[in-house]
Amino acid sequence: xxxxxxxxxxxxxxxGLCLHATALRVMPSSVIxxxxxxxxDFLGRALNAPRETAVEHAVRSLIxxxxxxxDDELATPLGAALAHLPLDPRPALAACYGRLLCxxxxxxxxxxxxxxDGKDPFV
Length: 123
Fold this sequence. Notes:
single chain; 7 helices; 54% helix; flat
């Protein structure tokens, strides 16, 4: 008999999910005022929604990283760039800083960050 596992939504890094939902402006077609649609609303509509405190923590850490604006929780230009990288937001931010600070050796910095994240950078 298999033991049931929690849904993938509850096992994911919520920072990455909130950043992607905000940067891609994922919203249902029934939303009239898209300026009021936030990642909290997106995750709140899930069948197995994560705890509100976990989502709040993820949003606050994204604001502290500079990936979201603090007033309306929309993605900043940095947040939009982080959302396009195949990494979680923290290692992606480290890769961006590595690119800025290492210059010609930025490929080495990117490889190091990808190895620390545990994901294949070429997928």
